[in-house]
C-alpha cells in the first residue's frame, strides 16, 4: 500500500512577486508580511510541523532571501537577547536545521504547477504536502493535520476545500464533488478558475494538498492552462481515476491573505483572539466602527 506512506515533506511555493501588495512587497517578500507579529510563512510552517512534516522545501526566487534568514540561526540577536534576559520563546519555531529545510529556485514565473515541479528532486519518490502561505488556515487541529488524519484512512491524493459564495469561484480551483462522508468528499473532477456558469460546485481548493509523487511526472508534460500558466489543478485533474482523490472540508477559519481585505480580516481576527492585545484591539475596533 504505497499510497499510505507517511507525509514527511512539504513544499511551500514562495516565488510569487506579490504585486497586489506593492509598494510593501518591493523589497520584502509578501510571505514575510506579518499578521500581528508572525510572518505569513511561519503560520504555514507551524501548521506543517503540527501535521508531522519533517522537511520544509521552499520554492523561492530572487529577492526572497529574507525567508531563508528568518528560519536560520540569528547569532547576534540571540546572543544579545540572552545577555539581556529577554524572552527567548519569542523566536520559537523560527529555526529550521539543515535536513529539516531545503531551498530551490523557480527561475521563471510559469505558474503554481511549475513551482511545485521545481521541487521534484528534493521530493523524490514519496508523497508530499503543498501549502500556499497566502491562505491562512486557522483551526485546531490545523488544516494539514486534519488532512493527514483523513489520509490515514483514504491514502492517495487529498485537497482541502471550503465553500465560497458562487460569484467568487472564478478566482480559484473548483471541485466536481462526488459522494460525501462527513468532512470527506470524493473528487470527480477539478477545474481551475472556471466561469461562474461552468463551475461544478462552490467548493474551492483552499491551498493545502497531499499529493502522490506521480504528479511530478504529470507536471513534466503539463501544458499551460488558465492565466497562461502551468496549473497544479490541471495536473491533479489527470490523476483522478488512477488514484484515490478526496477533498477535506476544512473545519476552521480561512483568511485569503492574497488580497488586501482578507489580510486585514486576518490581522483583526487573530488580534482579537490574543491574550495580550485582544481586549485593547476590541475597544479600538468598536470605537472606530462607532465613529
Ligand atoms: C492557486 C490555485 C487555485 C487555488 C488557490 C487558493 O491559485 O491555482 O486552484 O484555489 O491558489 O488560493 P492562485 O491564487 O495562485 O491564483
Q: Which structural category do the helix and sheet elements fall into?
A: alpha/beta
Tell me the total number of β-strands: 13
Strand content: 15-25%
Mean pLDDT across the residues is: 95
CATH class: Alpha Beta
Low-confidence stretches: none
Number of helices: 10
Spell out the CATH superfamily: Spore Coat Polysaccharide Biosynthesis Protein SpsA, Chain A
- CATH architecture tag: Alpha-Beta Complex
Oligomer: single chain
**Major sheet strand order:** 5-4-1-6-11-8-12-10-9
Bound molecules: 1-O-phosphono-alpha-D-glucopyranose
| Radius of gyration, taken over Cα atoms and rounded to an integer in Å | 19 Å
Largest β sheet strand count, sense and barrel closure: 9 strands, mixed
What do we call the CATH topology?
Answer: Spore Coat Polysaccharide Biosynthesis Protein SpsA, Chain A
Terminal Cα separation, in Å?
61 Å
What share of residues is helical?
Answer: 25-40%
Number of domains: 1
Notes on the structure:
- This protein is an alpha/beta fold.
- The chain has a single domain (9-258), classed as Spore Coat Polysaccharide Biosynthesis Protein SpsA, Chain A, CATH 3.90.550.10.
- The chain is 31% helix and 24% strand.
- It contains ten helices and 13 strands.
- The chain has helices at 40-50, 65-70, 75-83, 112-117, 120-123, 143-154, 214-220, 232-239, 260-272, 278-290; strands at 9-13, 34-35, 38-39, 55-60, 101-105, 128-131, 135-138, 157-163, 173-181, 184-192, 203-211, 245-249, 253-256.
- It has a nine-stranded mixed beta sheet with strand order 5-4-1-6-11-8-12-10-9. The chain has a two-stranded antiparallel sheet with strand order 2-3. The chain has a two-stranded antiparallel ribbon with strand order 7-13.
- β9 and β10 form a beta hairpin.
- α7 packs across α8 (232-239) and α9 crosses α10 (278-290).
- The longest helix is centred in the last third of the chain and has 13 residues, at 260-272.
- The mean pLDDT is 95.
- Bound molecules: 1-O-phosphono-alpha-D-glucopyranose (G1P).
